[in-house]
Each structure stands twice: as structure tokens, then as C-alpha cells.
Amino acid sequence: MAILGNTSSRRGMQAASAVVGGVLLLTGSIIPAHAVVPAGSSGTVSSSKSAGTWAAADLAATALTTDLVCPVTDELSGAVVFLSDRGAETPAVTGSDVRVESLYSFTQDALFQMSLDANGNLAASSTLENGFRDSSNAAVADMAATVKPNHPYSIGYVCTQQSADFATATVNAVSGKPVAAWATLTTDAAGQWTISAAQGTFSSVATPTISGTAAVGYTLTAKTAAPVPAPDATTFQWLRNGSPIGGATASAYKQVAADQGQKISVRVRHTKAEYDTAEKVSAAMTVQALFSGLVAPKLSGTAATGYVLKSTFTWPSPRPTAITYRWLRNGVIISGATAATYKLTALDRGKQIRSRVSFYRTGYLATYRDSTAVVPKAVFTSVTAPGFSGTTAVGYTVRAAVRLPSPAPAAIAYQWLRNGVPIYRATGASYRLTAMDRGKQLRLRVQFIRSGYLTATATSAYRVIR
């Protein structure tokens, strides 16, 4: 396993040091790092950062300065490299009084702190070498036997200020900048390591939601919020029971027969250059089948206060296992009106009354149909049968005797009847008897008419004409 070390070790540096042209020059006992990866390990590189390319044999520490440059205060300014488990790259290291030792899974010993040039860039190059302590602050003699196989680590550095005795290094905070941990070192089972460029991470990645009816033939629409920062691209993939549906890569998806009874969800991916791909999968919806042969129910009965309406329907296919009735007044469900019949009340006068029949069956979309609306009218009260006066013999004239209902009608229609059959043109308040009436039963039928009221009809008793 390759281990991170430094070509300019601080071990034995109590001898002398000087700064020339802003670059820390080291004298005394210097232990050089291996020029190549230690025996038994090998490395591959999969990144090419804009500020420099990683070397396979040497991890160029100067490349680490792309995202963070350290402040240079004196010859003891430097940087310490660390390996961190993913997700634990940012401990509380924001103050200058915090010791760097063992902040992470593996932290470079202070004796191996790397020097800086006048611009705050790391001047020394590093290899995967020794010189690390673990999270318990114990020196790691053999990193190859310590780091986990098949495991990703974050690799980065912190700016430090070394103590005068080179025993410790404390954080030298950079205003407004976090600890740098932006490259990934991945191990495999054979001790190989791969360093890849750090990718940014989206924040505020929302789980997508689906709107629409989960039934064959209907269209579902995916909704998602943009993460931070804004992605270069957002893609959609609809899933059936967790597996991608071929060609279903738009934000909307029309369900097909193959979806019936299956679970449909959508996966949304956000991509951006130099950022990890972020993806979320919505909650799944079970797709239902549809009834066929659905028609609106029909209403029968008199649409007037006090009368009863009845709703009748035709069974759809397949036959529902349950049905329900609801009655609506101007589109609002009438409380308690849940039978096939409904007795109209004064509240219904002038309103649009409909019947709604709903159909249910397991695996099928619950569906309803509404009848055509009727508008109930009010009814007259105190309606009595009319009479007529006069001699009931051929050649004489009889006249209607009518008592008005409440409220008073706007008009009265008359119709004289011979043996129950309307007499042609006998539609006035009086009627002159003819020879055709002799021996027949004469009746008078009247109708009371008023806007908003059910026309009321009343018929007199009969009299036989001589």
C-alpha cells in the first residue's frame, strides 16, 4: 500500500533553517522520501486538474494548492496532509489554537509538515510514504497494513503553524475558507490506489415528486427543485418496479398497459462539471386499470320541491365490487344524501341538482360519473279542483269557476274535456255546448302557471250533458 510522506522531512530540523526568496530552505539531517511508490504497492491516476496533473509515483503536493493557499507568516508556516473517511472531512479546525494531530483518520505527523513558498503554495512534493498518526494519535508504522482495502478516503491538507520544537502543528486558519479535502484516494483489495480529482457536492438535493393519476392512459409529471449550485443538466428516467423504462426519459410519462399493477417512480439526476452526480428517486405509485363502458347516470322524477328524484346507471366493465351514490347541489355534495333516491327540499329550488355514482374494484381506478343537472322548481299550495256553472244542455254556455292557489299564478290555462279527451279549441274560461256533447261527460282542466314554479294542474268533476 502506498503511503503519503514528504521529500523535505522536518525530522532533525532543529539544526538550522533560513528563508531565501520566500522559500523555506532546510538544513540538517534530511531523510529523503522514496522516489517511487514503495515495493508491493502501485498506483494509477484518474484525474487531470486544471492546475496540474497528478504524478503516478509522486503525489505532487503543489497540486493541492488549487483550492486553498496557506498564509505565510514565518519559516514555521506549512501544511499537513491528511486522509479522512468520506463524510468526515471537516472537523472543527477553525481556530489557531487547535492541534492538527489526529484530527482525521490519518494525519501527517507535525515533524513532516510541508514547507511553503512565498505565495503560500506547497513547495515540497509528496509521495505515498510514512509519517502518519491514526485517530488515536498513535504513530502508524505500516500504513499498508493499516488503511482499509476497497475503501475510499478523502485526501487534502490544512494550513499549519509548527511549534518551535517541531513536536506539534496547530491550524493556521485561512479567512473565509474551509479545510481543503477535495481529492479522493481509493484502495482496492490488491493494495492498488487511485487518486481522482475532488468533485463538488450539490446541496439542497430534493426528492422528486410525481403529480397526476396513476392509471393506464394517464400522464404522470415529475417535479423537482434545482439543487445548489444550479446543475448544468437535469435528466429524468422513469422506473417500473425499480428498473428503467426504455425511452421514458422526459419529465412526463404516459402510462401504458404494461404498467398496470406495477410500481412507477422517477429518478432525477443532476450533473455539473467537477461535481458529483446527484440523484434522487421519487416515491413509487401503483398503476391502476380503468373501467370501460362508463356512462353518466340518468335522473327520473319530478324536479320540484317535495318530489323524489331517482338515479339509475349502467354497469361498466368489469363489474364493480362496490358503488356509492352522492347528490350534489350546485356542485357541492349534499350531506346525508347517499341513496339512489333523493327528496327535493326548499333549499334545492333554483339550484342545479346532480347525482354522482362512483365505481370501485381492487386494482382499478375509482371512477365516478355525474348525471345531467336538473333545476327544481317551487310548488303552488292550496290547489283545488275547479268547477263550472251554467245549464248543462246543448246550446247553453258553461263558465269556469276557479279558486286561485298560493302564490297567485301569472297565468291560467283552460282546457274543456269530452269524455276525458280535450275538445278542439275549447281553451277559454267558458264553453258553448254542442250536439257532440249530448250524453257525454264534460270536465274542465285548469293549469296554474308562474315562473320558477311547477305548473299545477287540477280537473273538475264531470257533468253529463243533456
Instruction: Tell me about the largest β-sheet.
Output: 10 strands, mixed
Please give the count of helices.
0
Q: What gyration radius follows from the Cα positions, in whole Å? A: 47 Å
Strand count:
39
Task: Indicate the overall shape.
Answer: rod-shaped
Total number of domains: 4
Describe the structure.
It is a single chain. 0% of the residues lie in helices and 37% in strands. The chain is mainly β and 466 residues long. The strands form 10 sheets. Strands 3, 7, 8, 9, 11, 12, 13, 14, 15 and 16 form a 10-stranded mixed beta sheet that branches. Residues 1-68 and 175-181 have low confidence and may be disordered.
Summarize the structure.
This protein has 466 residues and is mostly beta strands.
How is this fold's topology laid out?
Layout: E1 16-20, E2 23-27, E3 42-45, E4 48-49, E5 52-53, E6 58-59, E7 77-85, E8 106-108, E9 114-115, E10 126-127, E11 132-134, E12 139-140, E13 152-162, E14 169-171, E15 180-187, E16 192-196, E17 209-211, E18 219-223, E19 233-240, E20 243-244, E21 252-254, E22 263-271, E23 278-281, E24 285-286, E25 298-300, E26 308-312, E27 322-329, E28 332-333, E29 341-343, E30 353-360, E31 367-370, E32 387-389, E33 397-401, E34 411-418, E35 421-422, E36 430-432, E37 441-449, E38 456-459, E39 463-464
Parallel strand pairs: 3-16
Antiparallel strand pairs: 1-2, 4-5, 6-10, 7-8, 7-9, 7-13, 8-11, 11-12, 13-14, 13-15, 15-16, 17-18, 18-21, 19-20, 19-22, 22-23, 22-24, 25-26, 26-29, 27-28, 27-30, 30-31, 32-33, 33-36, 34-35, 34-37, 37-38, 37-39
